[in-house]
């Protein structure tokens, strides 16, 4: 076949155009693998929010080879909004117990930091939810991540097609970041656990409420990009009273009497999902996270502390997420 | 003086669309929050600050029943507020809609939480609220 110069130019231009259109879908969305060889998960029993949480949590943390001596520890609870009697937020007593435990481990200092996703008035949520008094009494510094100093940060994965996000200095400079979610179902994400909890670090002052850009770009994709960029070193998940149904705000309280600890957010979320009666691999951000951020397979999890309790009735879900149920 | 900037002819249309959206997204019974007032059939309650911001935008729509309901909600809830951010927004909005603000103005001025405010957006808002008459006229927000 004789190929003229014109044929070649037309052909190569078409090929280049085709590659440029298709390549975003073919290129890997991440270029690193943070998965530990094995991950540790502990399920602790706690039937109520009480002063005893301090001892329960301290005993649980001793199951992990954590060295936080001299480090700045940032605790990131899930503090969204307040409604009396609802299980929306990580309970302040659990945050106090975590603070006390880490202080005893010789940290430089502990900061509690959150940027509420639904309520603009952080001080109002702190006051109504009981955090403000507890934090003052225990002299714990709180940073409003919605209004913290921001640093433009390149994203370490490309799930939502953005190059960077402006993120709070407090989180970026933490030596040891602890995600402290409330175990809840979520009407747009299926579940909200330690990885989804990281939405709270995205500043509302830059991106609006309820963290609009993340919803427009895709919730599952945003969770992965944030967790790829800001590694969570440890998880303390509040499932003493969890939430089922139309979460994260309007679901029903569900007593799970459990705290989940883990040194890997994917392992933590996979375990929480199993406790809720869901198949973790059907939750997109856990499924994709298990390819580069952590482990979800039971084969790769060392379950320490108590054994997985017998399966209770699964958590209720909104109709769109019925496919999450484990068979 | 006429403006020669491009795109200003689209402003009235955009304002109308924004107004329609605000009226559509109001919570049942009045007020606004950061998202929807109804999710999967469940009512999501209003927030004082979001309601106040929306009411400032809707100052010319006082005959709308939902606006009246929202002013009533804000007036009712404002007496329970202690946080400077929400108090400041409530002062600006209620003053714009001609409601009494004496009590919440005193609350804000005497708030012990003012000394803990360390973000500039809240501080600026509090300054505007404590000088609300000049602030509202400066932004041409007049009742």
Give a brief rundown of this model.
The complex is a heterodimer of chains A (327) and B (143). With 327 residues, chain A is an alpha/beta fold.
Question: How are the elements arranged and paired?
Answer:
The complex is a heterodimer of chains A (327) and B (143).
Chain A: H1 5-26, E1 39-45, H2 53-61, E2 72-77, H3 92-104, E3 109-114, H4 122-129, H5 131-137, E4 141-144, E5 150-154, E6 164-168, H6 169-172, E7 176-180, E8 182-186, E9 190-192, H7 204-207, H8 212-217, H9 219-229, E10 234-244, E11 252-262, H10 265-275, H11 284-289, E12 301-305
Parallel strand pairs in A: 1-12, 2-3, 2-7, 3-4, 7-10, 8-10
Antiparallel strand pairs in A: 1-11, 5-6, 8-9, 10-11
Chain B: H1 11-24, E1 38-39, E2 42-43, H2 48-57, H3 65-78, H4 84-96, H5 102-109, H6 120-130, H7 132-138
Antiparallel strand pairs in B: 1-2
Describe the structure.
The complex is a heterodimer of chains A (327) and B (143). Chain A has a single domain (37-324), classed as LarA, N-terminal domain (Rossmann fold, 3-Layer(aba) Sandwich). Chain A contains eleven helices and twelve strands. Chain A has helices at 5-26, 53-61, 92-104, 122-129, 131-137, 169-172, 204-207, 212-217, 219-229, 265-275, 284-289; strands at residues 39-45, 72-77, 109-114, 141-144, 150-154, 164-168, 176-180, 182-186, 190-192, 234-244, 252-262, 301-305. The radius of gyration of chain A is 21 Å and the shape is globular. With 143 residues, chain B is mostly helical. In chain B, β1 and β2 (42-43) form a beta hairpin. Chain B is built from seven helices and two strands. The longest helix of chain B has 14 residues, at 11-24. Chain B is 54% helix and 3% strand. Chain B has a domain at 47-138. The model of chain B has no long low-confidence stretch (mean pLDDT 90). The chains are: A alpha/beta (327), B mainly alpha (143). Chain A binds chain B through residues 83, 118-124, 127, 144, 147, 187, 205, 209-210, 246, 249-250, 318, and chain B through 33-35, 39-40, 42-45, 47-50, 81-86, 113, 116-117, 119, 121-122.
């Amino acid at each position: 076949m004789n190929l003229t110069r014109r044929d070649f130019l037309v052909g190569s231009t078409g090929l280049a155009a085709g590659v440029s259109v298709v390549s975003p879908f073919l290129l890997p969305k991440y270029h690193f693998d943070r998965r530990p060889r094995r991950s540790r998960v502990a399920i602790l029993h706690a039937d109520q929010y009480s002063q005893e949480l301090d001892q329960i949590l301290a005993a649980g943390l001793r199951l992990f080879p954590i060295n936080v001596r001299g480090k700045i520890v940032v605790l990131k609870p899930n503090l969204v909004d307040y409604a009396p009697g609802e299980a929306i937020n990580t309970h302040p007593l659990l945050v106090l117990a975590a603070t006390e435990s880490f202080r005893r481990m010789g940290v430089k200092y502990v900061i509690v930091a959150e940027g509420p996703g639904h309520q603009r008035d952080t001080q109002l949520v702190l006051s109504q939810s009981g955090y403000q008094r507890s934090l003052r009494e225990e002299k714990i510094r709180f940073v409003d991540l919605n209004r913290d100093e921001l640093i433009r940060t390149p994203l370490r994965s490309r799930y939502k097609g953005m190059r960077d996000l402006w993120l709070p200095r407090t989180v970026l400079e933490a030596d040891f970041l602890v995600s402290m979610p409330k175990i809840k179902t979520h009407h747009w994400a299926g579940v909200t656990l330690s990885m989804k909890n990281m939405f709270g670090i995205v500043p509302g002052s830059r991106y609006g409420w309820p963290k609009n850009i993340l919803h427009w770009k895709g919730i599952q994709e945003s969770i992965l990009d944030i967790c790829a960029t800001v590694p969570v070193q440890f998880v303390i998940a509040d499932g003493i009273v969890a939430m089922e149904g139309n979460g994260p705000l309007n679901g029903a309280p569900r007593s799970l009497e459990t705290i989940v600890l883990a040194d890997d957010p994917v392992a933590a979320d996979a375990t929480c999902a199993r406790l809720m009666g869901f198949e973790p691999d059907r939750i997109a951000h856990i499924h994709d996270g298990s390819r580069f951020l952590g482990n979800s397979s039971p084969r790769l999890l060392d379950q320490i502390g108590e054994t997985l309790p017998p399966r209770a009735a699964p958590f209720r879900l909104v109709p769109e997420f019925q496919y999450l149920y484990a068979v | 003086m006429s403006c020669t900037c491009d795109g200003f002819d689209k402003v009235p249309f955009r304002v109308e669309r924004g107004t329609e959206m605000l009226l559509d997204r109001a919570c049942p019974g009045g007020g606004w929050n950061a998202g929807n007032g109804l999710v999967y059939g469940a009512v999501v309650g209003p927030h004082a600050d979001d309601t106040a911001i929306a009411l400032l935008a809707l100052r010319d729509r006082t005959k709308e029943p939902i606006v009246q309901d929202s002013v009533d909600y804000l007036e009712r809830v404002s007496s329970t507020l202690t946080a400077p951010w929400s108090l400041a927004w409530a002062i600006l909005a209620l003053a714009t809609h001609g409601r009494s603000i004496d009590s919440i103005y005193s609350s804000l001025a005497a708030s012990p939480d003012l000394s803990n405010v360390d973000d500039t957006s809240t501080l600026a808002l509090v300054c505007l609220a404590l000088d609300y008459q000049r602030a509202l006229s400066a932004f041409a927000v007049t009742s």
